[in-house]
Amino acid sequence: MAPRMSVQGERNHTSVTMFILLGLSDEKEVQLILFPIFLVVYLLTLLWNLGLIILIRMDSHLHTPMYLFLSFLSFIDICYSSSTSPRMLSDLFKDEKMISFISCAAQYFVGCWMGLTECCLLAAMAYDRYVAIGRPLQYSAIMTPGLCQKMVAGAYGSGFLGSLVQTVAGFHLYYCGPNIIPNFFCDITQIISLSCSDPFISQIILFLVCTFVGFNSFLVTMLSYVFILASILKISSVKGSAKAFNTCASHLAVVILFHGTGLSVYLLPSSTHSTKQDKVLSVFYVIFIPMLNPLIYSLRNKEIKEALTSVVKRLEVFP
């Protein structure tokens, strides 16, 4: 589709109304291989995260702060994956992978909202683990249902405001072409580089939001683990130390996976990796991590396994 023409004063301007996504590959054979793989990954993401949410809601033994946070994390992963995967799957069968300006902004807004919210929620979960290990006798008094609800609301609210500011800052710029995004989704850093107006203010706004929401959440998470480690080192028995570490091992794995990949995608200089490497990292960050999170929490979690066994037994009673 040709860019739209608009007249402002006595000057003619070409305004971009559509972006073209290059996608993962332009080779038909590769696309045919990728489609079933990513379709299965997306369906498993929906199945495992939704299943985990239902399991936590059904079993009263899982009505604790840790599993409350985990259910909201699964909801975030569903929304995050759904913001990109369906369009990516449909684009695999298209010769021209075009997305409207508004749709691109909406896709980025939802993805950014969920990404920033996950940063905040992982910080809340890290604090929860610190209280459970460092101050076990006061855990119930500190991690009250009211505080947990406020932490969840704060995570979603911070993510929403941060995403709104970033989306407005990035998409209010003037775009006159080129309109090709070298990725399979709308990435604000790549979109801003296409702008015909000065992106300096928008880049500053993006940096500030990432610092205040993303980096501060990461800092809270790391500080919580410093205190967790200090608390574990105070435990005299090896068995007690191992048990304490196991209570936060899954969360720590998710934190390393999420932040480690995110830092590789957005903070490493572009000169250190190619466009193909960018796409591979983006696929892992956007597509695979939402599928892996519920697995990481479930595979070595005794309480979730017991809850699942209990639910299965109840279902067997009513064939």
Characterization of this structure:
The chain is mainly α. The chain has one domain (14-317): Rhodopsin 7-helix transmembrane proteins (Rhopdopsin 7-helix transmembrane proteins). It has 11 helices and 5 strands. It has helices spanning 28-58, 65-82, 85-91, 101-134, 139-142, 145-171, 188-192, 200-233, 238-266, 275-299, 302-317; strands at residues 4-8, 11-15, 18-21, 98-100, 180-181. The strands form 2 sheets. It has a 3-stranded mixed sheet with strand order 4-3-5. Strands 1-2 form a two-stranded antiparallel sheet. It is globular. The N and C termini lie far apart (55 Å). Residues 1-13 have low confidence and may be disordered. It is a multi-pass membrane protein. Its main location: membrane. Residues 48-297 form the G-protein coupled receptors family 1 profile domain. Putative odorant or sperm cell receptor. InterPro entries: GPCR_Rhodpsn, GPCR_Rhodpsn_7TM, Olfact_rcpt, Olfactory_GPCR.
Note the main attributes of this structure:
319 residues, mainly alpha, Rhopdopsin 7-helix transmembrane proteins, 3-stranded mixed β-sheet, two-stranded antiparallel ribbon, 5 strands, globular, disordered N terminus
CATH class, please? Mainly Alpha
Uncertain runs are: 1-13
Choose one word for the global shape. Answer: globular
CATH H-level superfamily title: Rhodopsin 7-helix transmembrane proteins
Q: Mean pLDDT, nearest integer?
A: 88
Second CATH tier, the architecture: Up-down Bundle
Structural class estimated from helices and strands: mainly alpha
Biggest sheet, strands in spatial order? 4-3-5
The succession of helices and strands, N to C, reads: EEEHHHEHHHEHHHHH
Instruction: Supply the number of structural domains.
Output: 1
DSSP helical segment count = 11
- Content of β-strand: 5-15%
Helix content: over 70%
Number of strand segments:
5
The description of the largest β-sheet is:
3 strands, mixed
Predict the CATH topology: Rhopdopsin 7-helix transmembrane proteins
Distance between the termini: 55 Å
- Rounded Rg: 22 Å
